[in-house]
Write a structure and sequence with these properties.
Layout lengths: L1 H18 L1 H7 L11 H16 L1 H12 L5 H21 L7 H33 L5 E6 L2 E6 L8 E4 L8 E7 L1 E4 L1 H4 L5 E3 L4 E2 L4 E2 L4 E7 L5 H13 L4 H31 L4 H15 L2 H20 L7 H7 L4 E5 H5 E12 L6 H12 L7 H10 L8 E6 L3 E6 L2 E6 L1 H6 L7 H10 L3 E7 L2 E12 L3 H10 L3 E5 L4 H4 L14 E2 L13 E4 L38
Parallel strand pairs: 10-17, 10-19, 17-18
Antiparallel strand pairs: 1-2, 1-3, 3-9, 4-7, 4-9, 5-6, 5-8, 11-16, 12-13, 13-14, 14-15, 15-16
Amino acid sequence: MGEGRLIVTFVLLVAIYLYGPMFMKMTGVTLSVPFGLSKNVWLFLLATPAVFYGGWVFYIGAWRALKHGIFNMPVLVSLSVIAGYSFSVGATFFFKAQVFYEALAMLLVFILVGHWLEMRARSGASKAVKALLNLAPPKATVIRNGQPLEVPTPEVLMNDIVLIRPGDKIPVDGEVTEGESNVDESMITGESMPVNKAAGGKVTGATINKTGTFQFRATKVGADTALAQIVKLVQAAQNSKAPSQRFADVAAQVLTISAIVFGFTTFAVWYWLAGATLVFAMLAAITVVVIACPDALGLATPMAIMVASGKGARHGILFKDATALEEAGRLQAVIFDKTGTLTVGQPQVVEIVAEGGSVTDKELLRLVASLEQSSEHPLAQAVIDKAKADGAALSAPTQFIAIPGKGASASVDGRKVLVGNRGLMDDNRIVLDGLSERAKALEQMGKTVIYSAVDGSPGGLIAISDSVRPNAKQAIQQLTSLGIEVAMLTGDNQGLRIWSPKNSASRRSSPKYSRGRRRRRSKRCKLAACGSAWSATASMTRRRSPKPRSASPSAAAPTWRWRRPMWC
């Protein structure tokens, strides 16, 4: 509707301009007026729909504002347009004077462009809300009267028992009552590693079940779910205004009152003191009122926000609100979340350490990947992907046995293969010798280590981690060159917070790890925290939790206290 209103008003403006005095002076061309009408009457016929249809949205806004005693931009626009139009109608039919049809149409087009840009930005935010709502599955399988029943997700009731199968999206928040599985919670936490869920575990709506089948009791449904709360925050942000927009509103109030005062003052000076005619005094007063309307102010702020947010979207940056957009220009420090921001966000094989005696690196990867084809462990796919990328010919495992909490065993091409954790190796009396020290070093660097044995002898180690994004180095260097301090926030151990030379550009361009090494600041600074699930503009102060966070994705995060929250 806003776009149609703008188009109609713009077309009428072009027609008015072609018959107006400015076009005649610039080109020397005089167009003949149709139907034998006078020029002012023809301009009146063109301007009237532009004034009433194009400006109607501002008249409604002005009426609502005046009912509450507010003098805002719509009030000033309405005052300027109605005053100029009324005088022009009088000059057309009752007395001779300059008309304002061309200026009024131009004013309305400028303000409507700003209004359209603002509505377009809000429409983009509405699409983002719809995308969030679509994260939840449309239907859910609930257990009622002992039988599974598929119902629309909005019809899931509190305390309903919901059945979740492998690959299903979880419809609502709840607590696991039966079964066990691994759940991908990256939509909420940004952590790439699926989290194990057993009886008593909490599950969140819109997250994805990876492996097993389980049932959970719905504890939060409808507007109470975590996803609904996120949507609510985004919708609230749409109605927020940037500081510059709030300043423009304040300026509009001052200008509105000033326009009225100076309009009457101009009329009084010319009519009573200077002795001018009534028409000339009215013309001078109306000119003051029309010129006082800040069409540039109404256009510049929405256009600046639209261009900046559009450019950010093209680069994958979404701003929560206009305040966040303005504050981003005054940042002094940026803290990055590690997982999914500086890293790829998917577990990948980063190192293979073969024992050397029984198997080579390539053979070890092939044997382990062949076994993992029958495994439901969340890390299994990372090993399989690495083997396929290296062109390994995988074999079908036989005699596969899953060992809960330890790993698995199978026969691959006639060779007995064990894959799992250190406990599985100890249970089978596999002597790791020098591999133990290497495994300890890898674990201290924050990597997940898979142990393996082949035919009763140690096979080697496969280290899995979240790889650094290829463009992370360039991004950090660009921020540093702008004088912005860069830090990394992670719950991993100290070894992972210091990037290795293999994965980082250098200590100069790597993020400074934040825990224990971040210097305290006595001054407040503009700080943005960018990552999977949160962001802030704040003073760099925090409250540490009593226990340090472990490297486990499911471990509780430290409690951070931010001031003046801002998402980007």
